[in-house]
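Service request form, structural biology core

Requester: graduate student, group of Dr. S.
Request type: structure prediction, single chain
Budget code: on file
Notes: please return the result as structure tokens.

Sequence provided:
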Amino acid sequence: MPERMKPYSLSACLLLVFVYLGVQALTGERGLLSGAAREALLVERQAQLASLVAQRADLEMRVRYLRTDSLSRDLLEERARAVIGFSDPRDYLIRVHASPAAPTAAAAS
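Core staff response, request fulfilled:
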């Protein structure tokens, strides 16, 4: 560096740091211009939370009805049919054979 530029080198470095920090303040992950993306993510997460809260409430209600002190016969019969394949001899059973593509699509989601 020439001798004339030495006094300005510190100022140039500080200017570069200031420009870098300014760009990050505007466009960085938590910058001023990324507020819309954060708001969209917040709305998405709130909808997901509401769905999970409703699902949890449903599961808690089902568990409450499966306890011995407040046993629901209908729910118990439904779970027995689903888990061990129990069915009443008077029931009509309709077997549906799924195409080979259907289980893989359900497993992928």
